[in-house]
Sugar kinase of the NBD/HSP70 family, may contain an N-terminal HTH domain
Amino acid sequence: MTNPGNVSRQLSMSTIVQAITTYGPISRASVSKMTGLSKQTVSEIVGQLEADGWVGTVGQTEGHVGRRAVVYEVVPDAALVASVDLGGTKVRVALCNLTGAVVAETVAPTVMTGGDAVTDQIASMIHRLTTDHNIDRSKVRSIVVGVPGVPQADGTIAYAPNVPGIETLNFPETLSTKTGVEVVVENDVNLAALGEHWMTKRGDSDDIVYLSIGTGIGAGLVIGGNLVRGSTGAAGEVGYLPFGADPFDPESLRVGALERVSATLALIDYYRDRTGKNLDVPGIFEAALTGDTAAQESLERAAKNIALAIGAITAVIDPSCIVIGGSIGARKELRELIRPALASCFPRSIPIENTLLGNHAALAGATSIALSRLHIALFTGGLKGAEINVPPPELGTFQEGAA
């Protein structure tokens, strides 16, 4: 039977940590006033947190008559989390401190063999970051990985054709064994949506869609401030919308009809079929800017199909805005083609905005989840229903640290 005293203590600690995390530097008296907890309880718990190295003094209050009060904030480097963005072509890993700031980052091409080799690669990248930056490896307490697919209850990743082999692997368990750290896996576009909502002014808007267009196509849905995963975790797999390519072609069951005409390989294949030339996606964009008709048609074809997808999404959930990112979606040339195409096929106006976090959107979302889970584990003993919302770092600070 749970000890009621322990539960009360854990709830008090989580409340105090939430106040210090959100409003620090803050005095014990202010924490008491803000939380409604007694000064004695606050003093005891803050003392314990300070002795354990989780909070520290950073000065004294100013402007008060009489004795000045010591103020506290969370010690940023008391623990770290690892945020991982696993893509079909690149893996990006960042170590972030308890304030969410990036302290170290690395990126590498995704290993072509996929499967278990990908978990080896991620573990190696995390270990190398700690070594190269003289970080005690034991400080890394949580890992969140964004994957280009749908995490399943058995740890495998479904609908992930761009990273072969992970559909048969218990991904979080395997990576956890190799790192000795708890691992959580989430869809990469879901994380990007969370990142945009958490770290930017869009946090004031609780209904947004993040549409990622790159190696694949997917959408992250934040409705009412909460991430929508759906009954099987596949909400937002818009690459499988049944238009673009023939949805009844068996290949559309593997890649997705929309993705087959709008993602990286679709642009490359279409341009090659028209010209006999091999250009990568940046090359196609550059060619379009010089007046290359085939390149322009390739981008227009993709933009029209993406406009159809945006119309379908908007008709169902009516978000406040569509945020477009990904290696292709972040290009302003594509957005300028999508807007008139959408106006031609959908009766209502919907704001289409560029990602503010670029290729770090998924990392930001992973950091928000990792920090929340870590705070709950550290300061509530995993108490059921406990919640600690970690405020994001300043956008400029995050981007500077992640550069």
